[in-house]
Each structure stands twice: as structure tokens, then as C-alpha cells.
Amino acid sequence: MTKTNFTITVLPGDGIGHEITEICLDLLNQVVSKVGGNQLEFTSFAAGAAHYKETGISLPEEAMQHAFNSDATLLACMGLPSIRYPDGREIAPQLELREKMDLFAGVRPVKTMPGLPLPLTSDAAKNLDFVLIRESTEGLFASRETFKIEGEGESAAAYDTQKISYQGCKRVFDFAFGLAKQRKQQGYQGKVTCVDKANVLGSFYFMRQVFDERAKNHTDITAEHIYVDAAALQLVAKPWQFDVLVTENMFGDILSDLGAGLMGGMGMAPSADIGFEKAVFQPCHGTAPDIIGQGKANPTAMFLSGAMMLDWLGHQHNNVQLIKAANLVNKAVENAYASEELLPYELGGNSGTKAITDKVFAELAKL
Ligand SMILES: NC(=O)c1ccc[n+]([C@@H]2O[C@H](COP(=O)([O-])OP(=O)(O)OC[C@H]3O[C@@H](n4cnc5c(N)ncnc54)[C@H](O)[C@@H]3O)[C@@H](O)[C@H]2O)c1
Ligand SMILES: CC(C)[C@H](C(=O)O)[C@@H](O)C(=O)O
Ligand SMILES: [Mg+2]
Questions:
Q1: Do the strands 279-281 and 272-274 form a parallel or antiparallel pair, or are they unpaired?
Q2: What is this structure's pTM?
Q3: Nearest CA to ligand 2 atom 6
Q4: What is the distance in A from the centroid of ligand 2 to the CA of 249?
Q5: Least C-beta-crowded within 10 Å: which of 20, 34, 132, 319?
């Protein structure tokens, strides 16, 4: 029998997370009841920088356990620049979630909405639709807890060590080729571009060799390499050439913000951290300390992350209504922007949380 009751762990986190979470849950409830047949049960937990400041714990065990046992996790954003661990790093329990739950594929779609004055103005650049996959459990982030400083004063040197493992590469590359294959069936190019720095670092040359090995199992998909510096140029010069990009954790973090820029800002960029069985969905953006409490937070990335969650659940459980619900959210958001009535603050306009939310709900009601 098809599963119809889904438990969702909700982590509003910090900063603007509190301004975009409830409305996203309302939207998801609304769309799921519109298509019928399913129910979402949300359970929220406090976690993040403010929670660490209050309690000394950034991600309570109860929240972690709930995330492990629920069907999916929806996270807004966490971290505040003023709240840090003793070694100077910020509180970022989303990294622990990714690592402990083995969510190796950070899926960050770059899909432009119609009706927005985007930084790139050519027709091709107005219709971008590619996906950046960021390895999310190792890379340069892997050693952050074993970070060390050797020597003192003017002879001190700080070290972070990059980890690129065979297994880590294999699973994320296979995921990327699998996604390119699915997309090819929908008319996309059928291409995976591996982004590295194999001209300078041996760890990236190793990564490239694993990529070439995995590519041999997917001869229907074009496999190519690009150095990360060249990728940064091409993402601005000719971003429409890309279909699926796959890269190391830190490179993916940086390039996905570039991708958000192409879409009109951080408030437009959704993401999903996906493992073999578990997944966490969250916007690419942070807690936006510069706009907290001003009503300027764009909830679009959160709505689209919620849609990614419905779509993933639908595919995991062979549940067509949830896939339909995901499509409806995407369509409502697209129609909201296509109306040309919305201009988010990040693009110089004055459409804030309420205006964008009201418009998306109104468009959903029409579908
Ligand atoms: N996934 C996450 O939870 C995540 C991601 C990035 C940063 N962070 C954390 O967030 C804090 C702030 O980091 P930052 O300033 O570098 O990045 P940020 O993404 O919070 O903000 C960068 C810029 O984008 C704007 N912005 C971000 N999201 C927006 C939205 N939804 N609507 C409108 N404008 C939006 C901000 O106002 C700011 O000008 C830090 O503590 C950082 O570690 C968390
Ligand atoms: C806040 C930070 C730890 C996080 C990351 O670097 O992964 C964020 O920038 C992201 O893109 O999700
Ligand atoms: Mg980031």
C-alpha cells in the first residue's frame, strides 16, 4: 500500500529562518490538501547558533534522532556571525546533519524565473536550467574539527586538510550521472561536468580519475572536466552550456552562491542534501543578519526547497500526488514571478516576505 502519512522534522534555525518557516509549512499543507490523499506531520525543534548560545548545544540529540527517524527534514538556515565555537568557527549544525546522515549529494538547481530583471540579460541567460551537485560530506570541510595551528606568533601556520575519498567520489558521481540520465529523458543535454583543480592539487587529480572511471559506465552521457577558476568564468559568460555540474564541497558552496546570483539572489536558490535513504531540504541562503526582522526576506528559496522535498518523497514512495503537489508549488512560484508584479529586495525592488507569499498563495489557488 502507498504510504500517505509523512513525518517531517522542521528546523527553523536562526535569523530569517523564523520569518520563512511557518509560511512554508502553510504552503506545503495547502498544496498537499489540494491534491488530496496525503498528510504531512511537522515537528519543529530549536537548533542553531541562538540555541547554542542559550544551552551550549547546537543540535539537540532529540532533534537529530527525530531527523533520523522521520521521512524528511526541512531546515531554513542556521548560524550567526557573532556566535562561535572556541576555535573561531561559527555554529553550523547543518554540516553535522549532512555528515551524520551521510547526505553526500548537495543538489543545488539553478533555474531562472521569468519576469525578473536578472544580471545576465541575453535570452539564453534568462532561461537557465542546470543543476550543481556539491559533494557534501568531505572535501575541504572534512577536517574542520581537526583544524590545527602549528607554531606560535609569527612562526604560526594554520592547516585544514582536504579529504577526497574513492567511495565519496563514486557515490556522488554516480548520482550526478543518474540525474543527467533522468534529465536527458526530459530533453536536457545529458552532460556531466566535473569541476576540479586537478592542475594544481593531487587530491583533485585523484577525484578526476574516479570521475573518468565512473563515466565509463554511462556512455550515453557526455562527461567533461573544467577547472574551478574557468568554471567561475563560464558560469557568468555562458552558463547555459551546463547541464549537471559536480564538484567538491567547498567549490560547490562557492559556485552555488554564484548560481544564486544568476537567479536573482540567495532568496531564489533552493537546495536538497540527499543520501541513499535520507534527505534534508533547505535554501542555499543563510540567516541574512542584515535584514532580520525587516520583512524583506524572500521566502521563494524556502518554498522551492519544500517543493524539492515533496518531489523527493513522491519518488521515494512512488506517490504521484506528492509529485503533483511539488509541481504545483513550482508552477505557483513561476506564475507569481511571470506576473511581473514581484521584485524582491535583493534585485532592488520592494517585494518582501508578505508580498511574495501572498502572490504565491494566490497563484496556487488558481491552479
Ligand atoms: N544553509 C545555511 O544555513 C547557511 C547558508 C549560508 C550562510 N549561513 C550563515 O548565515 C549567516 C549569514 O551569512 P552570509 O551573510 O554570508 O549569507 P546570507 O545568505 O545569510 O546573506 C547573504 C546576502 O543575501 C541576502 N539574503 C540571504 N537570504 C535572503 C533571502 N531569503 N531574502 C532576501 N535576501 C537574502 C542577505 O540579506 C545578504 O545580503 C552566517 O552565520 C553564515 O554562516 C547559513
Ligand atoms: C553555513 C555553511 C556551513 C553552509 C555551507 O558552507 O555548507 C552554507 O554556506 C551552505 O551553503 O549551505
Ligand atoms: Mg553556502
A1: antiparallel
A2: 0.98
A3: 253
A4: 9
A5: 34
